[in-house]
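Researcher: Go.
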Amino acid sequence: MARATKADRQLRAVAEEAMGCTRCELYRCGTQTVFGDGPAAADVVLVGEQPGDKEDKAGEPFVGPAGRILDQALEQAGIDRQRTYVTNAVKHFRWEGVRGKQRIHKKPGRAHINACRPWLDQELAIIEPEVVVVLGATAAQALLGPKFKVTEHRGELLDGTGVAPHVVATVHPSSILRGPPEDRAQNLAAMVADLRVVAGVLA
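Model: Structure:
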C-alpha cells in the first residue's frame, strides 16, 4: 500500500473539515457532505454539479448511473481513471420530491455554488492538476463565469488561469442518461471526443 503524501493528508484534512459545513441550508437537505475522491497526485480533476441520490447516500461522488457513464467515457478516451480526481461544485444534494424510492434532483443555485467554492478552491490548490474538466453548465459557470456556455466551447483546450494550466468543458454524464435512448451512443461518442483532448494533453 502506497504511503500517503503530504498532499494526501492535506486533502483528507480538508475533507474532514467539510463534513461539518453549514455555509448554506443544503446541509439540512442532504444526508452528508460528499467531498471529492481520488489521489492528490491526480493529473486531471473532473468537476460535476452536485451529488445525486445515490452519491448522497454513499458519501462518494460519481458512484451512481452517471458515474458509470463517466467511467465508460474515460476508458474510451484513453484516460486512466487512477490519474483522476472527481468532485462537484456543490457538496450537498439538493432535491425536491420523491419518485418511487429516489429523491428528485433540483439544480443548485448561485448561492450554493458560492458557499461551496472555498472547498473546490482548496481541492484544486492541493492537487494542482494539469487539466480541469468541467462537466456541464453548473460546474463550468462555477469556475469560468456565469456567461460561459458549454455548447459553444465544449472540447476546446481553454486557458485555465487561476484554475489549472488547462480547462476542458464537456457535458455532464447525467445529460446522456436523460436524453433519448436512441441518441445515447452518439452523445457518449461526443463526450469521448471532448475527453480525448484531455488525453492529448496528458500524453
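Model: The chain has nine helices and seven strands.
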